[in-house]
Amino acid sequence: MASSASYKKYEIRKRDPNPKAAALLVIDMQNYFSSMAGPILTNAIATVNLCRQASIPVFFTRHCHKSPADYGMLGEWWDNDLLFDGTVDSELIPEIERLSKPDEVVEKNTYSAFENTRLQEMLAERGVEEVIITGVMTNLCCETTARAAFVKGYRVFFSTDTTATSDSELQEATLKNMANGFAYLVDCKRLQQGISGNGMKK
Fold this sequence. Notes:
Blueprint lengths: L21 E6 L6 H4 L3 H13 L4 E6 L9 H5 L16 H4 L7 E4 L10 H7 L4 E7 L1 H14 L3 E10 L3 H14 L2 E3 L1 H8 L7
Parallel strand pairs: 1-2, 1-4, 2-3, 4-5, 5-6
Helix pairs in contact: 2-8, 6-7
C-alpha cells in the first residue's frame, strides 16, 4: 500500500475548496481494497465528517460487476479477476458503510465514476462545481475520475493522504500528473483549514 502524507512535494497551484460549491467523492473504499484502504481509513472518516459538518455533499462509489456485459476492457485487462456485485468484497468497508446513506452510493463498473452512472446528474442537482477526490486506487479509479471531472468542467481537489494504491511510484506519478494538469493537491490538514475558512484566500 502507498499513500503520501503531504501535498507540498508536487503542488504547483494553490486554492481551497469552496464549501458552498464542493462535493466529496469517496472512491471505492470497499472490502476488496481493504489492504490499501486500511491505512487511510482514519483520514477518510475524518474527511467525511468534516464535509458533513460543513454541509458539503458526500458521495461514495462502489465498483462492481453484474454480468459479462458490463466488463468492458476490464475483463481482458485483469483476466476476469473482477469485483462482483453481491459478494462481501464488493461491499463498502464497514466503517465507511456506516457513514453512507443509500442515495449517496454510486455503483460503477469502470474506472471513472462518471461513466454509465448518475453521478454528474446528482452533482448538478446540488449545484456542485468542485469535487474533492479521496479513496482508492489512486492511479486507477481516483485518477480517472479526477481527469473526467476536470474535462467536464469541475474544479478538482485531490487528496494526497486520503488516497492510496498498491505501489509508491504509482502514487507519486498520479500526484505529479494531477498537480501538473488536473487538480489542486490537498491533505487533511489543508482541507480542514480551507473548509473552515482559515486557509488561503480564493
